[in-house]
Write a structure and sequence with these properties.
The complex is a heterodimer of chains A (230) and B (126).
Chain A lengths: L1 H9 L1 H22 L6 H15 L4 H12 L2 H14 L1 H6 L1 H25 L4 H7 L6 H10 L4 H25 L5 H23 L1 H25 L1
Helix pairs in contact in A: 2-3, 2-4, 7-11, 7-12, 9-10, 10-11, 11-12
Chain B lengths: L1 H22 L6 H14 L9 H9 L6 H5 L5 H4 L3 H41 L1
Helix pairs in contact in B: 1-2
The chains are: A mainly alpha (230), B mainly alpha (126).
């Protein structure tokens, strides 16, 4: 029996199938509960990890299929160009405040992470993995890999950051008295990427569009910063 | 063949992005390079977004799916992070709040300067 399970799960089809099932399940739960806490990535990952743990399936068997899915990460990142291109009108109208906001915001984000990592005396690899955690997964993971970080730590940190941003951004707008839609949208996108943007879209059209553009700009700027800082 | 052709173009752009990323002397993610490359091709109107519609829709609608294996990888790193979970959560929360404030105030400030400059210019013309 043990040997049978090992042979079957080592087939890439196993990893792909279980991932697709877990993701569809996660999205369904998210749509039912309508709360950012029920994040599809989080639900799917917990489900897969529990399944592997219960049946004592080696991680390497799962990753045979996982590697196949990860092949699509680069094209998925490239496809973000479509999203930015769709908002080219808003981008042209507000390019200066957007550029200044994402440039300062991303810089502050990086400094804050680096400073806190030093305060907590965290391992160098963890520091590198947390460094890009405010930008979208599609850009954060490649940055993390380029500098020898651990992608899974980046993913978990940025999902948490995104959930926090999506839940608390309306409160942050009030606390910091941001009575400007462009400023609020840019801040949400820069601080909490696509997950925060889902909330920005609920707040308003301008907020949503700005947040969407800020994702791409902050991602690109963070990539450039990382060349100089890391 | 439509999907296959679209996949060919997009994967081809990614491959070129990867090559460009390898050629520049600093570490730069190939996927981000591909995003910039595709955006430039759109601006130059060499490729129309419509020409890649189906494949892009598949990738963008299911973006989160492609990151699931990266997250599962956390089980191999458990020993490394087990003592730092709380610290990592604190870092995420604090840096998100600080980043939010810094970004919002910068945008407000720049827009304020812009509208002042615009008023001044309007005033001078009159």
């Amino acid at each position: 029996m043990r040997e049978f399970i090992d042979t079957i799960t080592a087939n890439p089809l196993f990893g792909v199938t279980i991932s697709a099932f877990a993701y569809i399940f996660g999205v369904t739960v998210n749509r039912k509960l309508k709360t950012p806490f029920a994040n599809p990535i989080l639900i799917a990952d917990i489900l897969i990890i529990s399944f592997l743990g219960i049946l004592k399936i080696p991680y390497d068997n799962y990753s045979n299929g996982g590697a196949f899915i990860e092949l699509f990460l680069a094209p998925a990142t490239a496809a973000l160009a479509v999203k930015i291109h769709q908002q080219i009108k808003e981008l042209k109208e507000n390019w200066l405040p957007l550029l200044a906001g994402t440039a300062v915001g991303s810089f502050v984000s990086i400094l804050c992470v680096l400073a806190l990592c030093r305060v907590f005396n965290l391992d160098e690899t963890i520091t590198i993995s947390l460094f890009p955690k405010s930008v979208t997964t599609a850009i954060a993971v490649p940055i993390c890999q380029s500098y020898g970080g651990i992608p899974s730590v980046t993913v978990i940190a940025l999902v948490f950051t995104g959930i926090f941003g999506a839940v608390f951004s309306p409160m942050l707008i009030k606390i910091f008295r941001i009575n400007n839609s462009v400023a609020a949208g840019t801040a949400i996108g820069t601080a909490s990427h696509a997950l925060g943007t889902t909330k920005a879209l609920e707040i308003g059209d301008v907020e949503g569009a700005m947040s969407g553009i800020a994702i791409g700009m902050a991602g690109l700027i963070t990539t450039i910063y990382s060349i100089f800082i890391l | 063949m439509k999907i296959l052709k679209q996949a060919f173009v997009l994967f081809g752009i990614c491959l070129i992005g990867q090559i460009l990323a390898e050629l520049i002397p600093v570490p730069f993610p190939g996927s981000v390079m591909s995003m910039v490359l595709l955006f430039i091709l759109f601006i130059l109107d060499w490729i129309k977004p419509k020409a890649l519609k189906e494949v892009n829709a598949f990738l963008l609608e299911n973006m989160a799916f492609f990151f699931i294996p990266s997250g599962v990888g956390i089980i191999t790193q458990y020993d490394l992070i087990k003592n730092s979970v709380v610290q990592i959560l604190i870092i995420c929360i604090v840096s998100t709040v600080v980043t939010f404030a810094a970004t919002a105030y910068t945008v407000k400030f720049v827009m304020g300067v812009q509208s002042k400059a615009r008023k001044k210019r309007g005033g001078a013309e009159q």
